Write the structure tokens for this entry.
Amino acid sequence: MRAAEIKPVSVGFISLGCAKNLVDSQVMAGYLKRGRIVLAPSPEAADVILVNTCAFIEPAREEAAEAILSACAYKNEGGCRAVIVAGCMVQRYRERLQEVFPDVDAFLGVDELERVGEIVSLVAAGRHPGVVVAPGEARNLYAPLYPTLLFTGGPFAYLKIAEGCNHRCAYCAIPNIRGRFRSRGADDLVEEARGMVEAGVKEINLISQDSLLYGADRQDGATLTGLLRRLDALDGEFWLRVLYGYPAGVTDELLALLNGARHICRYLDLPVQHSHPDILRAMNRGKAVDAIQELPQRLRQAVPGVVLRTTCLVGFPGETDEHFAHLLEYVRQAKFDHLGVFVYSPEEETAAFEMADVPDPEVAASRRDRLMAAQRAVVDERAHALAGSLDTALLLRRERRAWIARLPRQAPEVDGETRVTGVPPDACPGTFIPVRMTGGKAYDLKAQAI
């Protein structure tokens, strides 16, 4: 067979974890494309399966392990040539993974994404590069070679504005995995967003470990509000949404910008984790103690109609019934629009790992369920209050006689969706339409096209 007739190697992605991980998968896909390696439509159709892992908490590691073992079993049955594991799990555990997953052909850390094409070529040829992870903490900062090569499956995208984290929350291993906080340049981000909009992306979600900290590490005066103003000035019909921010980082300047912006959704994702000062200090989140007490009231007063998402952590070492009762009442009073709850997971190399007085797993699970039940009451109340109001919906996909859509108040993957009826037959994904809210069920809403 002539060289020109040799079938190119194809790679299929399994991307796990958060949206930041998904962006890393897109970055790797760009390097593969530049190297003339084919992207398969699915892992089952690929010569090489690449599993991009999350290692944030135990459930994420369990999900990653299951995906890796399934991919290896598929390889051993002759379904593909090789399996590569990348991402946070590799960065965190390095050589230990080879013992646990001996059938994996290569492991790629978070600081070596540009080497993915080289690694794919090696494993496709039957070689086994082993663990490819640079020593020390992660330092690289990647920009996608092809900004419109998206894995979101819809007319929306994630724009990673920074990498790493400077906060040292006692329960979190992210700084150990991802390194210190480092921001991308504003010019590059604006051009990346411009290309997305010109390609038809209708919703751009800004993400990082702490988006409110954007620019603090740079010497060029970059700030989140400065970046948002430039993004908001772009031409086109699209939404911008800011995800993930430390509660103490919300400035009056940012709130004023939300009030007057053309494209920015009045939506803030601010994980409070807890409300009791004792637990917040034990979590090494002491700076948030004052910030969170009146946070919902302050934000709603400054930005009428703002939608608030948060997350809480229960079962942290030392959390008593009194501490939890304080959190439960805080959630009931705050009435967050969206709320997620995690149970504490002991993480190696974190300050909390050796802490005593960890609540029993059954107690922690019960607290999670009680908190979610309280939030469910808030959600039902909110859905009832929205009935009859007007809003704008972004059409995502047709489903039977209705469309699944998203409102400005709903972030991708985490906040539910809106089922819209009465949509014109010639509508297509990526269309904005006016709607009248008609109610909701659980965390999903219903609307009628106007």
About this structure: The longest helix spans residues 361-386. Residues 12 and 391 are 38 Å apart (CA to CA).
